Amino acid sequence: MNMSCPQELVAMNQRRNSEAVDFDFTLESAFADDRLTICCKNQEAALQTLRESYGAGYGKPVPGSASDIRGQKYQKAVTMEVIDLCRMIYHNGYELNNGHTLMLFGEIFNIYQKISNKVVGILARARKNRLVHFEGETLWQGKNDETNVTLLRSMKDIEGHFQKTGELLYNEEANDLIVLRLKDEIFNTFCVKINFSISPQQPEEFCEPIPAFQFDTDSASQTTYAIDSPPLVTHQTAQPVETKTAKAARKP
pLDDT (tens digit, 9 = 90+) per residue, 209-227? Predict the structure, then answer.
């Protein structure tokens, strides 16, 4: 993980506060609190299920109708407002050396409200496409003036995609993004993708099962062995001889 950008945030806070900054931070998922986008995705999934049952045109205006034309104009207008807002952040915010641009919501509101009074809604639409990140479900003037808003892609990428497709870029690079947040500081948000090293997969070792023990049985038939030599003759021994031992006479 490149730690130079958090150090850059520390320097930005020191310039603003003229005080020493402790490098104390927390890590959290970038879009875990984006419940609005999660709700929209659930609605789109439900519509897709209904279209599988009732046809691809379910919930859509008739192509070429007045409603369809108004809808296309509205979507294009929203897309252009999102691009304009991203451009404003890109040119007025603090550019970090990882390509992101950081700006406080209060500064965004003061500049962009002169262009459109829908700044919060446009920010939410930009976050739905993962072009910006900010903490919380929504933002309020005054209360959230010091909330960090981070532009996650360059204007070259955003405008280039719109020129090619006519649609707003969806930032797939923001998937699994992690926020490094400095504690008790104004400039406190740094979005980073942490790559965990994974050792190559080792082949699984296993023992082959031992087959059941098998043995062969041999059967032996009874055989008769004939001896050609004459049988031994038994001899009867004589009766045992009784022996007596002579004793010497004792002297008186």
Answer: 767 666 666 666 666 656 6
Residue 120's nearest CA partner among 176, 36, 182 is 36
What are the CA-CA distances from residue 236 to residues 215, 240, 244 (Å)? 52, 12, 25
119 alpha carbon, distance to own chain's centre: 32
In contact, 80 and 122? CB cutoff 8 Å:
no
In the chain, % of residues over pLDDT 90: 31
Give bridge partners of residue 148 from the DSSP assignment: 104
Distance from C-alpha of 179 to C-alpha of 191, rounded to nearest angstrom: 5
Residue 25 burial (C-beta neighbours within 10 Å; 0-12, 13-18, 19+)? middle
pTM of the model: 0.66
The whole-angstrom separation of Cα 111 and Cα 122 is 14
CB proximity list for 20: less than 8 A, separation 6 or greater: 14
